[in-house]
Amino acid sequence: MTNLGLYLAKKSINKAEVARRTGLSKSRLSQLSSNETTKLRVDELYLIALAIDVDPSELLNEVCKGLHLPE
Questions:
Q1: Where in the chain does DSSP place strands (E)?
Q2: pLDDT for 63 beyond 90
Q3: What is the pLDDT, as a whole number, of residue 66?
Q4: FRET partner for 3 with CA separation of 20 to 30 A, picked from 14, 59, 61, 71?
Q5: Residue extents of the structural domains in the chain
């Protein structure tokens, strides 16, 4: 499961409702939630944040946790 999928599950977010509100397909949202190799576009992240009523920067921090600059 991806960080986005974990975040949505932790918040008990209905993915079908998010898909409806954002205009993303249910299959695309499912890919973004479960497939680590699927790339999340910034416009998708922004729409998802609006649909679940969180600050986009909060969602970005959750999705990108674990990323670091090389030393």
A1: none
A2: yes
A3: 87
A4: 71
A5: 3-63
Enclosing H/E stretch for 71: none
Question: 21 falls in which pLDDT band (50, 70, 90)?
Answer: very high
Tokens of 44: 């998708």
| Signed CA dihedral, 33, 35, 36, 41: sign only | negative
Round to whole Å and give the CA distance between 53 and 28. Answer: 20
> Which residues neighbour 56 within 8 Å (Cβ) at sequence distance 6 or greater?
45, 46, 49, 50
Which token pair is 60?
A: 């970005």
Cβ neighbours of 40 (radius 10 Å): 19
Count of H helices and E strands in the chain?
A: 5, 0
